[in-house]
Amino acid sequence: MQSSINHKQLKLVIFDMDGLMFDTGRIAYNAYLKNAKKYDFEMIHDVYYALTGRTNASIIEGMKEMYGEENDVIAWREAIVKERNYVTTHATTVGKKPGLVELIQYLKENNILIAVASSSDKAVIERYLKLELLEGLFDAIISGDMVTQGKPAPEVFLKACEELNVSSEDAVVLEDSVVGVKASKNAGINVFLIRDDIYDLPIYEGKIKIRNPIVLEEETPTKEFKSLFEVKQYLED
């Protein structure tokens, strides 16, 4: 893993999507919460943070681990996905994160390649990009349905580098989740962390309690920023 980066020689910036580019973390959390009440599962912020960034199959396995295989986490998960898809399909915006457009513009003006590497399916990625008028701007899109192993495996980020013929030491990943930071480090790619804070949203004390919490060890990113604006400012210096 790189300990520092010469950003003047940067050739590729790899964007995670949910919670990093768009404010979809809140949409997802609210879908968890609404359907946790329906199925009576305890829902707290740490459940979301433990599961975010993973593929759907990995999320289901994580839910089984936390709540027990005898509880119908699959029905809960299916309801979450249905709710999230309904909201985003009918939305006029999924909320661009502050600084996203300015950062993309800066990278384009400086001939730095950009890619999306997300655990979401490609159809979802393309829908969000179209909705936010960002369609056609990215040089590559690597989705969860294009890889065999989801984050924290490094495949999605390595595939982005491979597709654009850029070595890992000449790239940087922008991430909002611990699992994404770990995947970047496993890929040997520098990673900038911009946290997605949803701790102001409510929780639900359901009857089906969390039995085995997934404890995520904090991963140290190459650098941490408060916003994408700060990332742009850092690259400009």
Fold topology:
Elements: E1 12-15, H1 24-39, H2 45-51, H3 56-67, H4 73-90, H5 100-109, E2 113-117, H6 122-131, E3 140-142, H7 155-163, E4 171-175, H8 178-187, E5 190-193, E6 223-224, H9 228-236
Parallel strand pairs: 1-2, 1-4, 2-3, 4-5, 5-6
Helix pairs in contact: 1-4, 5-9
Question: What does it look like?
Answer:
By secondary structure, the chain is an alpha/beta fold. It has a single domain, classed as Rossmann fold (3-Layer(aba) Sandwich). Helices cover 43% and strands 10% of the residues. The protein contains 9 helices and 6 strands. A 6-stranded parallel beta sheet has the order 3-2-1-4-5-6. α6 links the parallel β2 and β3. α1 crosses α4 (73-90). The relative contact order is 0.22. GO terms for molecular function: hydrolase activity. This is HAD superfamily hydrolase (TIGR01509 family). Keywords: Hydrolase.
